[in-house]
Amino acid sequence: MIFTQLILAHLLGDFILQPNSWVADKENIKLKSKYLYLHILIHNFLSFIFLWNTELWWVAVVVGISHLVIDASKLYFQNVKTKKRWFFIDQFLHIAVIAGVSFYFNEFNFEFLKDQNLLKIAVAVLFLSTPTSIIIKTLLSSWTPVAEAHNNIQTESLSSAGKYIGILERLLVFTFIMVNHWEGVGFMVAAKSVFRFSDLAQAKQRKLTEYVLIGTLLSFGIAVLTGILIK
């Protein structure tokens, strides 16, 4: 498949064969950086090599030119605050170009949208993300404990870390159930207990411990029930 070949070329060119020094130089002097053009040449070369078809030379050229335009746009539009956002926009656009070329060769179609099993899994994954986080937060809203400082213990946490940890753990539990590896669910519960409740023991707040325990059990329970329903 052209898509697989071009994705392989993209991963090698954008991540493996692009040193941090090249990235820094491009960000400093933008279009004046020789490494920007060397980076594009590497992408072109890799695309030619992996396609290994002289009749498809124009595909490598299209990918290379689009890569130059996307990278140049990112260099001029990103700043310190939007750098992370532009990284993902940049990668999305590169993959979209590759997908567009593959679609031109009829490698993709939308027949998968008729697959009921796939749609059920998609609904479950979507449900276990933000919707379940909101449901759990709403259920526990009347019990939210007030954080207290005890013996100079570090109580700060990353912004929205709990939400994303919950989403990831539910998706992992769901995956383990779908592939019939229930022992993985037990591993997740054990790992969460070790990392989370050791901190709570230091905090010495019974209400906070109970709050986190209820939230964790709800999170795992909803993921398990969802997995069973889909199975």
Automatic annotation (TrEMBL):
<keyword id="KW-0812">Transmembrane</keyword>
<protein>
    <recommendedName>
        <fullName>DUF3307 domain-containing protein</fullName>
    </recommendedName>
</protein>
<dbReference type="Pfam" id="PF11750">
    <property type="entry name" value="DUF3307"/>
</dbReference>
<keyword id="KW-1133">Transmembrane helix</keyword>
<feature type="transmembrane region" description="Helical">
    <location>
        <begin position="86"/>
        <end position="105"/>
    </location>
</feature>
<keyword id="KW-0472">Membrane</keyword>
<dbReference type="InterPro" id="IPR021737">
    <property type="entry name" value="Phage_phiKZ_Orf197"/>
</dbReference>
<feature type="transmembrane region" description="Helical">
    <location>
        <begin position="211"/>
        <end position="230"/>
    </location>
</feature>
<feature type="transmembrane region" description="Helical">
    <location>
        <begin position="171"/>
        <end position="191"/>
    </location>
</feature>
<feature type="transmembrane region" description="Helical">
    <location>
        <begin position="117"/>
        <end position="136"/>
    </location>
</feature>
